[in-house]
């Protein structure tokens, strides 16, 4: 299990493990092995390692390569995540988010000065000119499974895999509660009103820095009206006759699975 603490972050060292990235791909060895010992690769001055935490007592860093190193294969993060258990999923998600934050925030957004190295006790970039601090960005998103009797609502967006259906989801707006975001997204995307909104679970989603917050909700009123450009298709599906849904490693797949169990139990 990954341990994330507030202790002083160590510098990269030979006894640590490394998660290596090239562009937006994860570098792997053998049977999708993504935790790489220091002795298995040649470090360079452009790597910029970022400390992720401790994995079973061993320090873990993530870093990017500008050019593809020898001896590795590349795999898409999404594909690799779908092969993991929950602990590995969290580790990979954190590593990718921290590496993206480090790459994308080299200069101060207020005055343009090059940011200083990170604070030794936390992931922080500090501007030496105006003292602006920047922490890793986290973008909260809601995702909701909606029930109507013994049916749940599933939808497909224009970028969705053909034939795969999922839950309604969307970003939380400034000044908005999570519950308000649930009601608004459902209203905007499929034209429905809901009630009994209840939190169920959350999961990081590293594309690139979302935190997915899962909810259940009950149908209240309205007819399904897919939003043009947002929803290609949306329908009510009986829980014993669902179309293809997301992998169970994702919060969407878990949300659907839990809601079906809840409906079958009479809750």
TrEMBL record:
GO molecular function: metal ion binding; NADH pyrophosphatase activity
EC number annotated for this UniProt entry: 3.6.1.22
Known catalytic reactions: a 5'-end NAD(+)-phospho-ribonucleoside in mRNA + H2O = a 5'-end phospho-adenosine-phospho-ribonucleoside in mRNA + beta-nicotinamide D-ribonucleotide + 2 H(+)
Stretches assigned to the Nudix hydrolase domain: 136-267
Keywords noted in UniProt: Hydrolase, Magnesium, Metal-binding, NAD
Listed cofactors: Mg(2+); Zn(2+)
InterPro entries according to UniProt: NAD-cap_RNA_hydrolase_NudC, NADH_PPase-like_N, NudC-like_C, Nudix_hydrolase, NUDIX_hydrolase-like_dom_sf, NUDIX_hydrolase_CS, NUDIX_hydrolase_dom, Znr_NADH_PPase
Top-tier EC class: hydrolase
Top-level lineage group: Bacteria
UniProt record, GO biological process: NAD+ catabolic process; NADP+ catabolic process
SUPFAM superfamilies linked to this entry: Nudix
Family named by the database record: Belongs to the Nudix hydrolase family. NudC subfamily.
Protein name: NAD(+) diphosphatase
Species this protein is from: Marinomonas transparens
Taxonomic path: Bacteria, Pseudomonadati, Pseudomonadota, Gammaproteobacteria, Oceanospirillales
Gene: nudC
């Amino acid at each position: 299990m990954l341990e994330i603490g507030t202790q002083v972050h160590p510098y990269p060292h030979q006894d640590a493990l490394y998660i290596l990235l090239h562009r937006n791909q994860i570098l792997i060895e053998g049977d999708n092995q993504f935790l790489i010992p220091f002795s298995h690769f040649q470090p360079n001055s452009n790597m910029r390692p970022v400390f992720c935490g401790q994995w079973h007592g061993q320090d873990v860093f993530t870093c990017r390569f500008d050019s593809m190193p020898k001896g590795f294969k590349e795999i898409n993060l999404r594909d690799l995540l779908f092969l993991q258990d929950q602990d590995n999923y969290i580790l990979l998600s954190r590593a990718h988010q921290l590496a993206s934050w480090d790459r994308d925030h080299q200069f101060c957004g207020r005055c343009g000065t090059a940011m200083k190295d990170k604070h030794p006790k936390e992931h922080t970039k500090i501007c030496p000119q105006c003292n602006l601090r920047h922490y890793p960005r986290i973008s909260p998103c809601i995702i909701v499974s909606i029930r109507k009797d013994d049916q749940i609502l599933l939808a497909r967006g224009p970028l969705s895999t053909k034939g795969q259906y999922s839950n309604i989801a969307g970003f939380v707006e400034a000044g908005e509660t999570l519950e308000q975001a649930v009601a608004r997204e459902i209203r905007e995307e499929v034209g429905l009103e809901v009630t009994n909104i209840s939190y169920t679970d959350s999961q990081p989603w590293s594309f690139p820095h979302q935190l997915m917050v899962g909810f259940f909700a009950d149908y209240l009123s309205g007819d399904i009206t897919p939003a043009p450009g947002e929803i290609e298709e949306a329908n009510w599906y009986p829980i014993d006759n669902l179309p293809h849904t997301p992998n169970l490693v994702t919060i969407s797949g878990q949300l659907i699975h839990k809601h079906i169990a809840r409906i079958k139990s009479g809750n």
